[in-house]
Amino acid sequence: MAINHVEHSRDWSKIKSLLDLSTRASTDSQKFYSLEQQKEAEDLAKFLMHSSLTTEPLDRDCVAALLNGTKLWDRNGELVSISKGIEIEYLEECCLVMFEAGCLLLTCNLENHLEQHVDDSLIPVIETLKTLQHIQRGQEGYKKPNFFVSEEIWNREFTSSSLLLSYVEKEDNSYIFNGRNHNLNLLVSTFLWQKLLSNSTSSKEAFEQWLRIMRYTCSAAFPVLKYATSDAEYSAYTAELQQHLLKLPVPKDLARSISNSNRFSDVVLNYTQTLNFTISIGGSQAEGESQNADECVKQPRQNVVKKDSLISLNSHSLRTVSKNEFAEIQDNFKSRTYWGGVGRFYSWLISELLEENIYVDDHSLFYPHALIELIEAALEHPLLKHLVFGDLFQFRLLPKYFCVLLSRIDTCNFAMFWFTHFYDEISHQIENRDVVEALEVSISKRYAKTNSNNTKCSEEFLDIVLVLTDKLGLYRDNFKNSSYLTLFNNFLKHQDPNKILSMIDIID
To answer: Could you name the domain of life of the organism this protein comes from (predicted)?
Structure first.
């Protein structure tokens, strides 16, 4: 049996405590629920446990059949074909769709009336994607996949005064869950897991059903509460979640999928937009008229994207190439138009899994071997890497997980990058500059100790120096006024002098 990994040092407690001072607590969870909330959550969990989908699941087989016309879909009470000659393989090759937890995920932003402003050959592609989106959302008369129970089950399991009546709609002989995201919470997820586990032949079967329900009802799955479950129930949940994460399919081109999620509509437009600035000098002005008039001019695009050329188009390569891996993460964050898309469904599950399995006391940092397995797998798996070292930090630093990353030679650069990313916020939260500098020194020393066997400058080390240099604005005249100056100085001051000197060889 694998044992916990332990790092003995008082540094971890100090670093975690200082980061806790500056880290915003999650607003998504609560520790206490009223009796009414508990009853409501238990009833909803029971409903979902007994439920079935109102449609076929939007898995790859179903979507492929819809696109080739061998399967029809309910629209305004009639079965219709949505086929426009676009095959699932084409959409996958262009990184416009993928399947997350066995369910369709569109990885492209679709602006209103986009089909009116693209090459004619792309119109069926856009219309197909929009129809799939309508099905997912239950728009334009298309039937949305929802969960329902029969009237027989409802009458047997629930009373006429059930709190669920505000969450379901009676339709013929069925009660259909309205699918609003706010109806689910951590307690519903926890009760659902407990009920499925006790009524399934295996934890694997229970987890698959639990995950499917989460996928069709939540944009981001709600984790199971450790304190509200038994050790056996929670261990079964974490074991199944870990195995599921380790077996996530590798995306065809993750960078392109992420880019398409934010920029697809801009890339396929048959025109470019130029903003012309007009400044009125002198002369009379009508009342309420601005002196500055901005005009957006549309110009025909020279190389219009067509259906055949879309396959080989790498939209993400059209952007300026980033200096390094960490700058690429930063660029992805800046270019995002919304906090969703690839991997978003798993973010909360992973963060809670880490939070509940890492321990820091006065003398040590320790975590289970399973976490090591997950981290090592993430270093090689593009989607897991995106989740575990990127998206997990989209809103806040996770102090205990930060300590784990800083303690490992293969992940300490990610820790240093994210500390730099959140440094400005940390400084403002703590306010006391002496405390902030003490944190800088502690982290810089631990980084150096983690890398104590590497006395030469590596590409990764240089990448971190470049990130710090960029934040500092070293090439600006007023860089000495930057709040990042002490971080920059303390970091370099505590690294091996030979490593600093050998940077010259790498740069050359």
So the answer is: Bacteria
Distances (CA, A) of 58 to 175, 176, 192, 229, 264: 21, 18, 22, 31, 23
168-171 vs 271-279, strand pairing mode = unpaired
Report pLDDT digits (tens) over 125-135.
999 999 999 99
Q: Tell me the β-bridge partners of 70.
A: none
| Helices of type H across 199-324 | 203-217, 231-246, 254-268, 307-310
68 close to 61: Cβ distance less than 8 angstroms: no
Per-residue pLDDT tens for 417-471? 999 999 999 998 888 999 999 999 999 999 999 998 887 888 888 889 988 998 9
Residue 449 CB: number of other CB atoms within 10 A? 14
- Short-list 215, 214, 186, 209, CA closest to 197: 209
- Could you tell me which of 82, 109, 84 has the C-alpha nearest to residue 95? 109
| Angle subtended at Cα 234 by Cα 167 and Cα 183, rounded to the nearest 5 degrees | 15
The pLDDT value given to residue 27: 45
**Do 137 and 99 form a contact (C-beta atoms < 8 A)?**
no
Q: Are 493 and 444 in contact (CB under 8 A)?
A: yes
Separation between Cα atoms, residue 80 and residue 75, nearest integer Å: 7
318 pLDDT higher than 60: no
Bridge partners (DSSP) of residue 279 are 292
Helix (H) or strand (E) holding 65: helix 60-68
CA dist 294 and 279 (Å) reads 8
Burial class (CB in 10 A: 0-12, 13-18, 19+), 333: middle
**CA dist., res. 27 & res. 32, Å (int):** 13
> Mind giving me the DSSP string for 119-131?
-GGGHHHHHHHHH
Would you call 246 exposed, middle or buried from its count of C-beta atoms within 10 A (0-12, 13-18, 19+)?
A: middle
Indicate the helix (H) or strand (E) that contains 366. strand 364-367
Per-residue model confidence (pLDDT) at position 92: 97
Q: State both tokens at 89.
A: 């393989």
CA angle at residue 306 from 302 to 310, to 5 degrees? 110
Residue 311: name the closest of 114, 86, 116, 62 by CA. 86
Q: Which two tokens stand for residue 43?
A: 């009833």
Dist CA 117 CA 126 (whole Å): 11
Between CA 139 and CA 385 the distance in angstroms is 34
Do residues 150 and 173 touch, judged by C-beta distance below 8 A?
yes
Determine which helix (DSSP H) or strand (DSSP E) holds 175, and give its type and residue range: strand 174-177
Crossing angle between the packed helical segments 399-407 and 412-430, to the nearest 10 degrees: 140
